[in-house]
Amino acid sequence: MKHSSIFTLVVLASILWWSQNVGKLVEGRVHYHKKKGGSSPAYSPAPGSGDDDQPPTFSPPDPRSPAPVVQPDPYPYPSPAQGGPCIYDVTAFGAVGDGSNDDTAAFRDAWKAACTADSGGVVLVPSRGRFMITSTIFSGPCKSELVLQIDGIVMPPDGPDCWPKSDSKKQWLVFYRLDGMTLNGTGTIEGNGQKWWDLPCKPHRGPHGTTLSGPCDSPALIRFFMSNNVRVSGIRIQNSPQFHMKFDGCEGVHIEKLQINSPQYSPNTDGIHVENTKGVGIYNSMIANGDDCISIGPGSSDVDIQGVVCDHSHGISIGSLGVHNSQACVSNITVRGAMIKNSDNGVRIKTWQGGSGSVSDIFFEDIQMENTTYCIIIDQYYCLSKACRNETSAVYLSGVSYKNIKGTYNNLRSPPIHFACSDTVPCTNITMSEVELLPSQGVLVDNPFCWNAYGVQETLTIPPIDCLLDGMPQTIGEIVAGC
Predict the structure, then answer these.
(1) Which of 11, 178, 358, 464 keeps 20 to 30 A from 224, CA to CA?
(2) What are phi and psi of 316, to 5 degrees?
């Protein structure tokens, strides 16, 4: 009996100590992020809880209950007490995530809190929600590197009728003047593009398949502008009203394991567009869309593309360049280890007449074509209508290499290789090696088209390409210096 009484006293003392101290033990691991200018925590306590200066109360555990199962941390980032970045969960700033409530203010507040923090942090969009936000510019510079982790679904208003009149219809999410930003996650950026694609001003969407005139602005889904050291990985982007992702005026861009998906009929939905940007790597990504899979615009250099799969797209394009008599400078572009299938075009360079500048040091290597209409294209007469005038100036193309490009094409009337260079500014230093392109059905379409194209065939090609001119032209024409 004596031993039983002592045991009972020990158990009661243990329970009393636990009820008085467990709140403090747990409280030490919680990190609240307060809204700037307010005194209450951005993370709301459970309804009915007391003052947040008091630790939460807990009932003592039942000794007969089994030991609790410790769940893994849903966030891959340690708490500040563990030396990791702070987590700025948008729901802690008021985001609802029901797909209809406007969560724009919560996203902006979470971004501002992370951007102004000395240690940076992670703006988290949790998996348990569909978050609708309107057109927003997430500006820098921030005090430290920052991560936007999207694990849920983020989307704009559903179509032009729901778009706020005060918002720009040319862009949705803009990341501006940032250095060292990462966009990642396991979630989806949903563009809600269908109602934009169906506007009667879009190609063949008017009455009886016509295209009506008038304003036809549609927002690019994501734009990085004047930002450096940007990393994008793991995210899924789909159904953009126009371009899915644009980089303009950036330096140091790394993209990997990105998924982009839109229907084949969706107009102007380029997957990734790069212009006025240097030092870009695009790796191991899958893009299925209704326009260029990847497009390289003017002012781009040192772009490396590897392991990309393009499906039902317009292929990988350099251009269009030189529109409205503008200067375009593009150099050192490598596309290697790509698969292009069920697409209108494979690898293409397209320029307008009347432009100036140059395209140089372009390498297309180890590319597989599957059921592609036009596999290899240089088009220096690019025009969207029949009203384009003949011009004497053009962007100068030099040093374009095609190596180990193999696969099938589905056009039984036109050859899969088409080099249409400017009348006055010939293409020079074109190299063909290990090119084998066969019809997916029917007979081989030989006689590739060449016009004013100078280059060399290092190995026999299929179809044979005997139309390249030897050596160099006597004159290059009017080439504007400055690239």
Answers:
(1) 358
(2) -100, 120
The domain defined by 85-283 carries CATH number 2.160.20.10: yes
Distance in angstroms between the alpha carbons of the first and the last residue of the chain: 97
Please give the average per-residue pLDDT across 293-311, as a whole number.
Answer: 98
* Separation between Cα atoms, residue 310 and residue 356, nearest integer Å: 30
User: Do residues 469 and 457 make contact, with C-beta atoms less than 8 angstroms apart?
Assistant: no
Which residue has tokens 């596309």? Answer: 335
Alpha-carbon distance values, 210 to 194, 198, 204, 207 (Å): 18, 12, 5, 6
Give catalytic residues, as residue numbers: 314
State the DSSP H helix or E strand holding residue 105, giving kind and residue range, or none if neither. helix 104-116
Sign of the CA dihedral with 275 first, then 277, 278, and 283 last:
negative
Query: Confidence band (pLDDT; 50, 70, 90) for 35?
Result: very low
The whole-number pLDDT of residue 324 equals 93
**In angstroms, what CA-CA distances link 427 with 107, 256, 288, 396, 400?**
49, 33, 31, 7, 9
CA nearest to 124, candidates 98, 147, 96: 147
> Which CATH number is 292-384+391-483's, of 3.40.47.10, 1.10.3720.10, 2.160.20.10, 3.90.79.10?
2.160.20.10
In this structure, of 69-78, 240-249, 461-470, the range with the lowest mean pLDDT score is: 69-78
Asked whether the whole model's pTM tops 0.70, one would answer yes
Residue 26: which of 85, 68, 89 has the closest Cα?
68
Distance CA 393, CA 404 (A): 32
Q: What pLDDT band is residue 115 in, cutting at 50, 70 and 90?
A: very high
Say if CB 233 and CB 186 are below 8 A apart. no
Encoded amino acid at 143, one letter: K
Identify the CA nearest to 136 among candidates 161, 163, 98.
163
ω into residue 47 within 30 of 0, thus cis? no
The pLDDT-based confidence of 477 (bands split at 50, 70, 90) is low
**Distance of CA 19 to CAs 62, 317, 325, 455, Å?**
12, 67, 78, 83
Q: How far is CA 131 from CA 100, 171, 308, 352, in A?
A: 8, 18, 29, 41
Do 292-384+391-483 and 85-283 have the same topology in CATH? yes
For the chain, what are the domain ranges?
Answer: 85-283, 292-384+391-483
Label residue 482 by pLDDT band (50, 70, 90).
low
Q: In the predicted model, what is the mean pLDDT of residues 469-476?
A: 88
The three state secondary structure string of 21-32 is: HHHHHHHCCCCC
How far lies 253's CA from each of 137, 145, 210, 238, 242, in Å?
Answer: 19, 14, 40, 21, 21
Residues of the chain by 3-state class (helix, strand, coil), percent to 5? 10, 40, 50
User: Does residue 70 register a pLDDT over 90?
Assistant: no
d(CA 464, CA 291): 29
